[in-house]
Design a protein that fits this description.
This protein has 443 residues and is α/β, with parallel strands linked by helices. 50% of the residues lie in helices and 10% in strands. It has 3 domains: 135 residues, no CATH class; 97 residues, Rossmann fold; 194 residues, no CATH class. It contains 15 helices and 9 strands.
C-alpha cells in the first residue's frame, strides 16, 4: 500500500529537479546582479535564458537527471561543478566573440555560475533528504534478488542503508528460482564469475528489471564499472529500458529533415555516380534488395550497384570463403567491380539508403539492416536487435565493423537499443566521420 501511495509522488521528482535547477540559476543571476549592481535590461535576459538552456543540456550530458537510488553525494557535486564550468566557458567565448567590451557581463556570469553550483547542490540535498524520509518510512521500496555466489557483506550493506529503499526478497544461485521471481522483483544483483547464454538471454528479455552485475576483481580492469550505491563495491549497471515517445518523435523529425536535405544536396553526386556505373558496367544503377526492418517487417533497400550482373548466383560457390560469422563477407570478393570497390571503401554505395530513411523504413542511427537468409543466426536473445528500425550508421559500424565477431556486433546493437538517446545518436554520427576516413573493417 505504501509503495502505491508513493508511486503517485515519484513522477514529480524529476520535474522538481528540473524546476529546482531553473529556479536556482535564475536566483543566482539576480543575486550576482545585485552584488555587482548590474541592471538586467534587454538584451541581457535573453542572454541568461540561453545560458540556462546550455546549462540544462550540460546537466543532462553529465547524467544529473538519471534515475538512481543513492542520494546526493560527491559525484553529483562534481558533475554539477563540471557542467556549470563548461557552461561558463561556452558563454564566455560567446561574450568575447560578440561583445568584448562588456566585461561586467562576464563578471556577472562568473558570479552567477559560482552561486549556481552552491545553490543547486543545496537544493538537491534538500530534495534527496525528502526522498530519504519517504524511503525510511517504507515508501518507494525496490524489491531485490541476489543471484550467484553468496555475498553476506553486500547484503548486509543493503539492509543497513535505508536510504536506498531496497528490500531483499531472495538469495539464490538456481536459474529456475530466478526465473520464477523475476515478475516480483525490481532489481537483480548478479555476483558470479561468468554469464552464460541462458542468463544473458534472460537479462536481455527482461527489460523491466534493473540488473546490477558485481564483477570479479579480475574483470575490473576490462569492464566498465561504476561505484553507485556502494563506494567499495563496483557495479556494472544494465538499466531497465524505458521507451521515450518524445525522443522517437524527435528522431523521426530529424530523419525526415536530414535525409530530405541530404538528398537535395547530394543529387549532383548521385547523377555523377549513376553515369559512371552505366558507363563502366551493364545493368541497373541501383541495387534493390530485401532487408528485414523493425519487428522483421521486410522492405526494399537502395544501394548503388557495386557488383557484376548475376552476383547472387555466384554466392553459393563462394560461401566456403566467408570471413565473417553470421554474415557473408570477403575482403577480395571477385564479384565486386573496380568502381564498386571505390564506392564501398568510400561508403558512397550506401548513400541511396537516405531514400529508405525518408520513407521511414530506416533511420539515421540504428542496427545494421539484415538479410532474411541471415535470420537463422539470430536465435534467442539476439532477436532483440529487431525491436527497432535499422540504421545507416550505428555502434557496430564505428567500433570495428566486420573486424568484430558476430555476437559482439549484435551486443553493440542491443546496447544501443537499451540506451537510445539523442546524445548517443549525435555521438555515433560524429564517430562515423573518422571511422569512414580510417576505413577500419570496411570491405
Amino acid at each position: 500500500m505504501k509503495k502505491k501511495i508513493f508511486s503517485g509522488l515519484k513522477p514529480l521528482y524529476f520535474p522538481l529537479l528540473y524546476a529546482s535547477d531553473v529556479v536556482m540559476f535564475i536566483l543566482s543571476v539576480f543575486i550576482a546582479s545585485a552584488i555587482l549592481k548590474f541592471q538586467l535590461i534587454p538584451p541581457y535576459p535573453r542572454f541568461f535564458l540561453f545560458t540556462l538552456l546550455i546549462l540544462l543540456v550540460n546537466h543532462s550530458a553529465y547524467k544529473l537527471y538519471r534515475d538512481k537510488r543513492n542520494l546526493f553525494d560527491d559525484n553529483d557535486f562534481m558533475s554539477i561543478l563540471y557542467s556549470s564550468s563548461i557552461t561558463f566557458f561556452i558563454m564566455m567565448m560567446f561574450i568575447l566573440t560578440f561583445d568584448q567590451s562588456d566585461w561586467r557581463l562576464l563578471l556577472v556570469l562568473l558570479l552567477s555560475i559560482i552561486f549556481t553550483v552552491i545553490l543547486t547542490s543545496l537544493a538537491r540535498m534538500v530534495l534527496d533528504r525528502i526522498v530519504f524520509l519517504f524511503r525510511k518510512n517504507g515508501y518507494d521500496r525496490k524489491k531485490v534478488l541476489f543471484f550467484g555466489e553468496k555475498n553476506d557483506e553486500l547484503a548486509k550493506k543493503i539492509e543497513n542503508n535505508k536510504s536506498f529503499g531496497y528490500e531483499i526478497m531472495k538469495i539464490t544461485s538456481d536459474l529456475n528460482v530466478l526465473k520464477r521471481h523475476l515478475g516480483f522483483v525490481d532489481i537483480v544483483f548478479l555476483h558470479m564469475e561468468k554469464i552464460d547464454d541462458k542468463l544473458l538471454e534472460l537479462i536481455i528479455k527482461n527489460d523491466s528489471i534493473h540488473w546490477k552485475i558485481v564483477p570479479p576483481v579480475l574483470n575490473l580492469v576490462i569492464e566498465p564499472v561504476a561505484f553507485d550505491e556502494f563506494k567499495d563495491y563496483p557495479i556494472i549497471n544494465i538499466s531497465d529500458m524505458k521507451k521515450n515517445s518524445g525522443y522517437l518523435v524527435l528522431k523521426r523529425i530529424i530523419d525526415l529533415a536530414v535525409s530530405g536535405i541530404a538528398l537535395l544536396i547530394l543529387s549532383p553526386l548521385f547523377l555523377l555516380v549513376a553515369a559512371v556505373i552505366k558507363i563502366t558496367m551493364p545493368g541497373t544503377v541501383f541495387f534493390r534488395h530485401e532487408r528485414l526492418g523493425k519487428n522483421l517487417k521486410p522492405f526494399r533497400i537502395f544501394k548503388f550497384r557495386t557488383m557484376i550482373v548475376g552476383a547472387d548466383a555466384m554466392k553459393a560457390k563462394l560461401i566456403k570463403k566467408n570471413e565473417v560469422k553470421g554474415l557473408f563477407k570477403m575482403k577480395d570478393d571477385p564479384r565486386i567491380t573496380k568502381f564498386g570497390k571505390f564506392l564501398r571503401r568510400s561508403c558512397i554505395d550506401e548513400l541511396p539508403q537516405l531514400i529508405n530513411i525518408f520513407k521511414g523504413d530506416m533511420t539515421l542511427v540504428g542496427p545494421r539492416p539484415h538479410l532474411r537468409s541471415e535470420l537463422e543466426n539470430f536465435r534467442g536473445w539476439r532477436m532483440v536487435r529487431f525491436n527497432v528500425k535499422p540504421g545507416l550508421t550505428g555502434l557496430w559500424q564505428v567500433n570495428g565493423r566486420h573486424e568484430l565477431n558476430f555476437d559482439k556486433a549484435v551486443l553493440y546493437d542491443i546496447y544501443y537499443i537499451k540506451h537510445m538517446s539523442l546524445l548517443l545518436d549525435i555521438s555515433i554520427i560524429l564517430k562515423t566521420i573518422p571511422a569512414l576516413l580510417i576505413n577500419k573493417g570496411r570491405y
